[in-house]
Amino acid sequence: TSYGFRTVDDGEKQTLVNDVFHKVAKRYDIMNDVMSGGLHRVWKDALVAKLNPPRRAGFRFLDVAGGTGDIAFRIVAASDNQAQGTVLDINGSMLGVGAERAVKKGYAGNLEFVEANAEELPFEDNSFDAYTIAFGIRNVPDIDKALREAYRVLRRGGRFLCLEFSEVEMPLLDRIYDAWSFNGIPAMGKAIAGDAEPYQYLVESIRKFPRQDDFAAMITRAGFSRVHYTNYTGGIAALHSGWKL
Ligand code: SAM
């Protein structure tokens, strides 16, 4: 993995990622709206619509790299407050913001917050009905390992859903997007959060992430069946889906 001019190993990469999210935790939600022009809300709603959680008690989901709770809150709401979820993140600052928001929304009884690494999930095999991860997997140093862990903790019949920035597959939009992400996003980061570097890192991590078909192949290699993906906004984001059958 290269970061700027240097090459960093997995441990160093994780440290850089952790620094970014410790710094931005309090401003993370507003930054998301600014950076994506509110689109992240549309994409997250699409993930939850695809999951379509049952409106009955007993559904258990794990939201990995769950940060400040956006995906988990949406799943709980879509289940008529029936679903039980675990929000897992490696970063205590992000989880802290999430736990506070959960109390405010009245979801404290539905959710638990666990500080751990996506590469080593502290759960038994076959524990969850669904595994979700949104804009998180590109930050994980060993993606294959995280996918194998996802497979392990899902029960048979369980579903894997991953939302991530992807390869823009629309001409023109790809150029606008490049201009925005290489110049606009770091500049906005500096203006709002006082620091451009973390955002430069994030933009770079998006560039390095495997494109749609390659990522689908990785999910299949981890053991999942019926793997497919849907592009949103011309491929700025893509939702990958798979089943543990
Ligand atoms: N899912 C949330 C959302 O969509 O708003 C948060 C996404 S945020 C861009 C990425 C999150 O991934 C951060 O909260 C970060 O701490 C977390 N993360 C990075 N590396 C991780 C790892 N190895 N294991 C678990 N979480 C990790």
From TrEMBL:
Which keywords fit this entry according to its UniProt record?
A: Menaquinone biosynthesis, Methyltransferase, S-adenosyl-L-methionine, Transferase, Ubiquinone, Ubiquinone biosynthesis
CDD domains named among the record's database cross-references: AdoMet_MTases (cd02440)
EC class of the enzyme, as a word: transferase
Does Protein biosynthesis count among this protein's keywords? Answer: no
Catalysed reaction per UniProt?
a 2-methoxy-6-(all-trans-polyprenyl)benzene-1,4-diol + S-adenosyl-L-methionine = a 5-methoxy-2-methyl-3-(all-trans-polyprenyl)benzene-1,4-diol + S-adenosyl-L-homocysteine + H(+); a 2-demethylmenaquinol + S-adenosyl-L-methionine = a menaquinol + S-adenosyl-L-homocysteine + H(+)
Give the coiled coil ranges: none
Q: Which GO terms describe its biological process?
A: aerobic respiration; menaquinone biosynthetic process; methylation
Listed binding positions for S-adenosyl-L-methionine are: 68, 89, 117-118
UniProt EC number: 2.1.1.163, 2.1.1.201
Q: Which molecular function terms from Gene Ontology are attached?
A: 2-methoxy-6-polyprenyl-1,4-benzoquinol methyltransferase activity; demethylmenaquinone methyltransferase activity
Keyword Methyltransferase in annotation: yes
- Function of this protein? Methyltransferase required for the conversion of demethylmenaquinol (DMKH2) to menaquinol (MKH2) and the conversion of 2-polyprenyl-6-methoxy-1,4-benzoquinol (DDMQH2) to 2-polyprenyl-3-methyl-6-methoxy-1,4-benzoquinol (DMQH2).
Q: What is this protein called?
A: Ubiquinone/menaquinone biosynthesis C-methyltransferase UbiE
Q: Which organism is it from?
A: Hoeflea phototrophica (strain DSM 17068 / NCIMB 14078 / DFL-43)
Q: What is the lineage of its organism?
A: Bacteria, Pseudomonadati, Pseudomonadota, Alphaproteobacteria, Hyphomicrobiales
Q: Gene behind this chain?
A: ubiE
